[in-house]
Design brief:
mainly alpha, two-stranded antiparallel sheet, 8 helices, globular, disordered N terminus
């Protein structure tokens, strides 16, 4: 129908591109592969001709490296730098996939909970595995804060356990919800412009100026959100890794 607003949920549909069933190659898999390809290509070009006076791409790569390295050192200490490749990979994957998703007619990988939950579980399992490997049963001190009176200690331990095992949920839902909500809002305001112009003609173009300006403003905000969500995921990962390195409160 002319003037009908586009479905804001349609952009999140997973569509098989090659094959069918559970092993089908989908648009989600395509953009995950494209994200990895963009990151590898960028880093290879940026580091192919390292000079004392860096070019734009080399400077951008160095800024990204130092930004993540400082985040790791500030949150997990020098010992946490052994996890730098893992944390840097997470940051770059989330950031680049979020940025690619802002290009019209592309797909936002982080708009699906299964993807963000897989990333969060990778962090969660790494924390548990390293925590026990490095500290043994002393890792369980994470659930027993020091200085707590004995009569409320069981309750505090229970709260700590629930808080710990809810980390993958909160980490994944935060990223998923922000990307989903932002893209839906952007699609709705962009849809208003086409709907008004289709229904009212030339008058609709004048009325549609406001939603158009709002769509532009939200697009700019989404670029900021894309970076902030990558940063929040990264810094929380570093904080959780610090618990594995130093489980004592």
């Amino acid at each position: 129908m002319a003037g009908e607003s586009p479905d804001p949920i349609h952009q999140f549909n997973i569509v098989p591109l090659i094959g069918d069933g559970p092993l089908a190659f989908t648009n989600s898999a395509l953009f995950m592969a494209l994200t990895v390809a963009v990151i590898i290509t960028f880093l290879m070009i940026a580091t192919s001709s390292r000079t004392l006076v860096p070019g734009r791409l080399q400077s951008l790569a160095e800024v990204g490296y130092e930004f993540v390295a400082k985040t790791v050192r500030d949150s997990a200490g020098k010992e946490g730098m052994k996890f730098f490749p893992f944390v840097f990979s997470l940051f770059m994957f989330i950031l680049v996939s979020n940025m690619l998703g802002l290009i019209p007619y592309t797909f936002t990988v982080a708009s699906h909970l299964i993807v963000t939950f897989a990333l969060a579980m990778a962090v969660f399992l790494t924390v548990i595995a390293y925590g026990f490997i490095k500290n043994g049963t002393k890792f369980l001190k994470l659930f027993v804060p020091s200085g707590i009176p004995g009569y409320i200690l069981p309750l505090v331990v229970l709260i700590e356990i629930i808080s710990f095992f809810s980390r993958p949920i909160s980490l994944s839902v935060r990223l998923f919800a922000n990307m989903l909500a932002g893209h839906i809002t952007l699609k709705v305001f962009a849809g208003f412009v086409t709907m008004l112009s289709g229904a009212l003609g030339a008058a609709g173009l004048l009325v549609g100026v406001l939603p158009l300006l709002l769509a532009v403003a939200i697009t700019g905000l989404e670029f900021l959100v894309a970076f902030l969500q990558a940063y929040v995921f990264t810094i929380l990962t570093c904080i959780y890794l610090n618990d594995a390195i130093h489980p004592g409160h």
